[in-house]
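explain this chain.
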Amino acid sequence: MYYSTVYVGMDTHKETFSLCCYTNEKEEAEYPQKVDGHYSKVLNYIEAMRFHYGDDALFICGYEAGCLGFSLYRQLTEHNVKCVILAPTTMLQQRGKKRVKTDKRDAALIARCLAHHDYSPVHIPTEEDEQTKEYLRMRDDHKLALKKVKQQILAFCLKHNYRFDGTNNHWTQAHINVVRQIK
């Protein structure tokens, strides 16, 4: 049985993570710290927090979906740390006062949302699903690049009065042969 559950809010960026702890017992963010943007620094932070919360505390980490994708989630779960990715649009926002947005406050908001369950978690795809998605994105990028190059070639031909008098459409084998003969 765990003595308590500690929610670790992480405001993540490419180079740094802002971390803080939140418990339902105290209802406030504690021990804010900015660390280098590497999962091992999060593990070190959690180990340091065991001094304050006890060895039997359960730590649940969370961060907003963003630039890191699922890499931090996978790294932490590989080290038996429970982690959640929060959908930013579903997080409970503070109403009324306009506040200056800082990494420390964002980490505290994430931790509070974790503790109060005021968020929707992001679906975590399998690694195979992610690889398929990356392949399809790369394929679409290459198709767009090819389309752009073809448009540039046709514009060049039109600008220099190279005409294609074939009965077929552009980019047939006959059209490609005519384009290849242009000097």
Notes: The mean pLDDT is 89.
